[in-house]
Amino acid sequence: MITSSWLFFCLLPCILGGTDSNTASEWEDYHDHYALIDKLLEITKKCPQISTLYKIGQSVEGRELVVIHFSTTPSDHVALKPEMKYVGNIHGNEPLGRELLIRLADYLCDAAIKEDKEVLQLINSTSIHILPTMNPDGFNRALNTNPADRAWLTGRGNANEVDLNRDFPELDEIFYELEKLKVPRYDHLMDLFIDDKERQPETVAVGRWALSLPFVLSASLHEGDLVANYPFDSSIQKGISAYSASPDDGTFRWLARTYASNHAHMAKNDHPPCDGTSEDAFARQGGITNGAKWYSVSGGMQDFNYLATNAMEITLELSCEKMPDGKLLPQFWNDNKKSLLEYMFAIHSGIKGLITNAITGEPISNAVVWIRNGSNPMPIRHPVTSWLLGDYYRILPPGQYEVIVDADGYTTTSRNVTVTNKVRDSAMVVNFSLQPIFEEHPSVGFLHDP
């Protein structure tokens, strides 16, 4: 059970009106901050057995950053039950993701009540965290600006006018420098990061949240184009747009395609490109792009997740227009509903398992799990680590792999596996029991003749 008091601070229930959550008019306008909180509380009131609310912090102006959590064991991390998150509205003037995530939460609850097989399968097998808004202050500014006076950047930043998607620790530079120096360190790079920048409270809250749970999969919802963007976002050629592949480039492309191919239009050449990206022709690329090839971003949340945690995150651009008319929101929901669900199911791809002490059966945390792909002699340069319960998770597309587990004080162990991803609600379970290394101590002198 997670015990961090700042994390699972449950919000007090309130008396709510009898709004019909399925009325069309409710979904044809943007929820202000109070309406958002009321709606999330309404959902947890309808589905108390599978949902709970917690806050992870506050914005500059004191608005709570509230997460709704869906699980059969709310507030508990369960071994072998992977954690995923959706984050919306990091840019205040991009609230489409905010509305889609509110509606997703409402849909999960209503579908569970109706015993929808797909949703019950998802909730029974997955711990789902939804943060509809990371930037409530910026959204409030955009919402309360007359549309005729709303510029392209109005409300993009937080109350201090800081772009939160440029405010995370820049770990890419460390990664690229280590690669250049051939230093074999590829992940969990926060302990190598040093700077004196004062970060925004929203960034700190989300960064701590990302590090506080063993998240496996994540996505951030944006507006400004129609494409699924994958790491790296920060270019290997500093300041220059250039394809910058992460060690998991193939897996990230597969994840991005999972969202794009299930979207009503993203991967189809049935719509004109957005202004400014006609040369990119994202639809003809299958609706996906490497972030740094599009344009380089330093201090982004996507790369932070990948280089600081075990989580794989992509960025979803869901509309050419920022803050589209509320009357269009139901259509956006229809366009994205299948993608949002299928992307969550992607968390059950690859392998997962428990790493334990072969003698005592106790879980081993911080064991390092390396993956070697097929005939490639070198492992993928991005290991994951086991959590407090000894559980680990590694998203992988179908293929032949060698799994190598290393932990201090134990013998290194490996296994060959064939990943098929044919089971929709569970990754392949590959457990490891590691033998402790017993050091030979010098003989005690008084047991021997002088």
UniProtKB/TrEMBL annotation:
CDD domains, per the entry: M14_CP_N-E_like, Peptidase_M14NE-CP-C_like
Cofactor(s) annotated in UniProt: Zn(2+)
Entries under InterPro entries matching the protein: CarboxyPept-like_regulatory (IPR008969), CARBOXYPEPT_ZN_1 (IPR057246), Peptidase_M14 (IPR000834), Peptidase_M14_domain (IPR050753)
GO BP annotations listed: peptide metabolic process; protein processing
CC per GO annotation: extracellular space
GO MF, one annotated term: metallocarboxypeptidase activity
Catalytic machinery residues: 317 (proton donor/acceptor)
UniProt keyword list: Carboxypeptidase, Glycoprotein, Hydrolase, Metal-binding, Protease, Signal, Zinc
Domain Peptidase M14: 29-347
Leader sequence segment: 1-21
Family membership: Belongs to the peptidase M14 family.
Protein name as it appears in the record: Zinc carboxypeptidase
Organism classification: Eukaryota, Metazoa, Ecdysozoa, Nematoda, Chromadorea
